[in-house]
Amino acid sequence: MASISLRKIVKRYGSGPKANQVIHGISAEIADGEFIVIVGPSGCGKSTLLRMVAGLEEVSAGEIAIGARIVNQVEPADRDIAMVFQNYALYPHMTVFDNMAYGLKIKKVASAEIKTRVDRAAAILELGGLLQRRPRELSGGQRQRVAMGRAIVRNPQVFLFDEPLSNLDAKLRAQTRLEIQKLHRELGVTSLFVTHDQVEAMTLAQRMIVMNGGHVEQIGTPEEVYGRPATTFVASFIGSPPMNLLKGRVSGRDFMVGGITLQLPAAAARDGELIIGLRPEHLANWNAAEGWPFKVEMIEMLGAERLVYGRLGDAVFTLRIDASLRPPKVGATLRLQPSAGQLHCFDAQTGQRINA
């Protein structure tokens, strides 16, 4: 196992004034044995960053170190990493055993050692009864576990996962997430996991790297990223439904937004034009005698909870309530009281968090 160090990583395609820069000086330190999830929307550069760690893309500037060794010029096969792709990339004519053993056979590992490693990986992934089957005889979840087994048998210093769950249905994704968590607990191998799914990121990560447009927006634990988003992008991307973001003008406790004036529970970090954020569940009372006037426009039933969509004046707002409670009626006006200490302030121009 080994740590990973990203030092001012830049990626450009082309050269000169027409060069297209897609990664803009990213730096991060990943500890030995840590499970890091790189999350962001499609096209933000997360897979490109992972492929540079793997050696499948050249680094335009900066350094990548795995352990104590700078690997910019090291071939992928010599970096001691194992990668699991979105596409399982299994050999259709080979059995599960042969698919998992193939990389070891190429390296001329002894047959007894190969069997030991494959059997161990199969036991971890519950593939013991499937070793003589071919990929066409497996479900999508089983094929993905074979792909992970092929990575495990190599005993790498680093695991790299490039959206490995994207081809699975929702139930299989949830099941495979649990298997990946169990795998990391048992093996403790440093892991980088790329996804655009913020639920995957929140459930898997020890720490998250949230990316947008080739930049890092925030690095932190899921609790830190959800509870104290560094930017409006993070606030809107992490969380389902996302944080309510209301752009208006603050004077003391008066917040003018959507054509109306709301009373804040406490004075904001500063006066002037601000974006105030509030998670849909962070309301002390959503049916009070006094508070923010919220007109209900639509309600979604999601099993254990309901999402209530409506407006504060002209501003769009979402409320999350427990499904066991009697829901409001569409067209009704509720009085919302935001929870003390749960309002987030952001600069209206830069989107950066403002700490009180």
Descriptive tags:
single chain; 356 residues; alpha+beta; Rossmann fold; OB fold (Dihydrolipoamide Acetyltransferase, E2P); 2 domains; 6-stranded mixed β-sheet; 8 helices; globular
Please tell me about this protein's structure.
- By secondary structure, the protein is α+β, with helices and mostly antiparallel strands.
- It has 2 domains: about 5-230, P-loop containing nucleotide triphosphate hydrolases (Rossmann fold); about 240-355, Nucleic acid-binding proteins (OB fold (Dihydrolipoamide Acetyltransferase, E2P), Beta Barrel).
- It is built from 8 helices and 21 strands.
- It has helices at about 45-55, 95-105, 110-125, 140-150, 170-185, 200-205, 220-225, 230-235, and strands at about 5-15, 20-30, 35-40, 60-65, 70, 80-85, 160, 190-195, 205-210, 215-220, 245-250, 255, 260-265, 270-280, 285, 290-300, 305-310, 315-320, 335-340, 345, 355.
- The longest helix is centred in the middle third of the chain and has 18 residues, at about 170-185.
Helix proportion: 10-25%
What is the global morphology?
globular
Mean pLDDT: 92
Distance between the termini: 41 Å
Low-confidence stretches: none
Q: What sequence of helices (H) and strands (E) makes up the elements?
A: EEEHEEEHHHEHEHEEHHEEEEEEEEEEE
SSE-based structural type: alpha+beta
Report the β-strand fraction as a percent range.
35-45%
Question: In angstroms, what is the radius of gyration?
Answer: 24 Å
Largest sheet: 6 strands, mixed
Which homologous superfamily in CATH is the superfamily of the largest domain?
A: P-loop containing nucleotide triphosphate hydrolases
Sheet with most strands: strand arrangement? 6-7-8-3-9-10
**Would you tell me which CATH topology of the largest domain applies?**
Rossmann fold
| CATH architecture call of the largest domain | 3-Layer(aba) Sandwich
Q: What is the count of β-strands?
A: 21
**SS element count, helices:** 8
CATH class of the largest domain, anyone?
Answer: Alpha Beta
Total separate domains: 2
